[in-house]
Predict the structure.
Amino acid sequence: MLLDNGTLLPLMEEFYTIQGEGFNTGKAAYFIRIGGCDIGCHWCDVKESWDANLHPLTSINQIINNILYHKATSVVVTGGEPLIYNLELLCKQLKENLIKTFIETSGAYQLSGDWDWICLSPKKNMIPLPEIYLKANELKVIIFNLHDFIWAEEQSKKVNSNCYFYLQPEWSKQKELIPLIIDYVKKNPKWMISLQTHKYMNIP
């Protein structure tokens, strides 16, 4: 019941760092990585997040206290797939402490929580729900092969008119893919490039 109402969450890791991807690159934020994901992207770089049972159920009160200790002003909730869980209480407590709320999600599960920023990173295995397309602030598509450019264009037609568009190379193929993405963005300037800059900086 406590897991159902969002009082406890399977916390894989939490850390205060610099955002490395997408629209908010370069900004300080406290990251909460929640365990559990059934989407199963073969190129996922945090496969250890998939099994929620591997990660301790943690009180959101404890998580909030850790955020306040670091004096963070924004929080990014990621996974795994964080929307497997009810995030209403977490967001409520963050808002009560005047902390901005950011989420990265595949969009495959119903949206819960009050978010200042929604980064939608859709996956072919489980496509996003219509409501999340309409609320996304940022569309970030991971490019692993040439078909992903077609997939990205299909996804871009489903989001709202204020959404920002990003293409991000899958890390293991970045040297091969970055030139292709650069060329694509030059020809299709509605898109921007997202790089995992935290990996270049050797930070979480």
